[in-house]
Design a protein that fits this description.
Strand content: 15-25%
Order of helices and strands: EHEHEEHEEHEHEHEEEHEHHH
Radius of gyration: 19 Å
Distance between the termini: 36 Å
CATH architecture of the largest domain: 3-Layer(aba) Sandwich
Number of domains: 2
Bound molecules: NADP nicotinamide-adenine-dinucleotide phosphate
Number of helices: 10
Length: about 280
């Protein structure tokens, strides 16, 4: 231990990590709020995860974000796991506490809800079923948060049906699994529609779920934010739906971590969006 104040450090661990927008995001806030701290990307191999996590607090780190492929594995090294991280089975935010303990949290669901609340203030998730495409890590956080918001039914469809069945087994009977070839059918009378898969992302497979049954009153959102206006969002907008892009989820999920690490609750603003988009 040193007896003089240290500059707080944070960062994101993943592999690869060079594409991450988190350094631009947190760097923007550090500068905006005049906080003497730093946030850096760290490309860490799976075999080095434990040794790095044990060393970071000693080097002055107050916490870090966690991205693919370490989101599940970090739970094994956490001393305290929040209820939502335990429910989701993955963490995206670690807090290195002054008592030496590692606290693991998952803020993806928080970011998802905060983004919709801000961008679609009339969104009422408890009013009607939700349709969720995909059953990976992002889906777990989103399904958990929709259940918490009182959504009466969550229709789930995934290319690999077994993964959707696993979510149903874990989250209960409000989750209803649809076959992948019938994913379009689950849109009927759903007022929340979410793509949680990587379909539609630049360089990945095209989003091809038929949208004929989409309700024009639905709020439609996508976790993919490259491009910002995905094919799903463009088509849904043309059908009269309220559409919300995935960048806002990324910005909002970062708020709780920044607050815990640097002691200031940051705001999600238009200039933050512009800075992260330009990074
Ligand atoms: P993941 O656990 O690897 O899951 C990927 C999902 O995409 C699975 O449901 C997978 O289906 C589906 N998928 C991939 N390729 C497919 C294809 N060719 N056809 C049909 N389905 C396909 O990844 P994740 O962590 O959930 O992340 C998913 C996406 O969300 C990524 O693009 C990630 O960048 C984004 N994300 C965004 C935010 C944000 O803040 N906006 C936060 C978290 C994640 P199978 O199970 O059949 O493979």
């Amino acid at each position: 231990m040193t007896d003089h104040p240290r500059i707080p450090l944070a960062g994101v661990i993943g592999s690869p990590v060079a594409h991450s927008r988190s350094p631009a995001l947190h760097g923007f806030w550090l500068k905006k709020y005049g906080i003497r701290g730093h946030y850096i990307p760290m490309d860490i191999a799976e075999g080095d995860l434990e040794i790095v996590l044990r060393a970071l607090p000693k080097a002055g780190f107050v916490g870090c974000n966690v991205t693919i492929p370490h989101k599940e594995a970090v739970l094994a090294f956490a001393d305290v796991i929040s209820d939502r991280a335990a429910l989701i089975g993955a963490a995206n935010t670690l807090i290195f506490r002054a008592d030496g303990k590692i606290h693991a949290d998952n803020t993806d669901g928080y970011g998802f809800i905060a983004n919709l609340r801000e961008a679609a203030p009339n969104w009422k998730p408890a009013e009607a079923p939700a349709a969720v495409i995909g059953a990976g890590g992002a889906a777990r956080a989103i399904v958990a948060s929709l259940l918490e918001m009182g959504c009466p039914e969550i229709r789930l469809s995934n290319r690999t049906r077994a993964r959707a069945e696993t979510l149903r087994a874990e989250f209960g009977a409000r989750v209803v699994v649809y076959d992948w070839v019938q994913a379009g059918n689950m849109l009927e009378d759903a007022l929340t529609v979410v793509n949680t898969s990587s379909l539609g992302m630049a360089g990945k497979a095209e989003f091809r779920v038929p949208l004929d049954a989409l309700n024009p009153r639905a709020v439609v959102t996508d976790v993919v934010y490259t491009p910002l206006k995905t094919k799903l969002l463009a088509e849904a907008e043309a059908m009269g739906c309220t559409v919300v892009d995935g960048l806002g989820m990324l910005l909002h999920q970062a708020v709780p971590g920044f607050e815990r690490w640097f002691g200031h609750r940051p705001e999600v603003t238009a200039d933050l969006r512009a800075a992260v988009l330009g990074a």
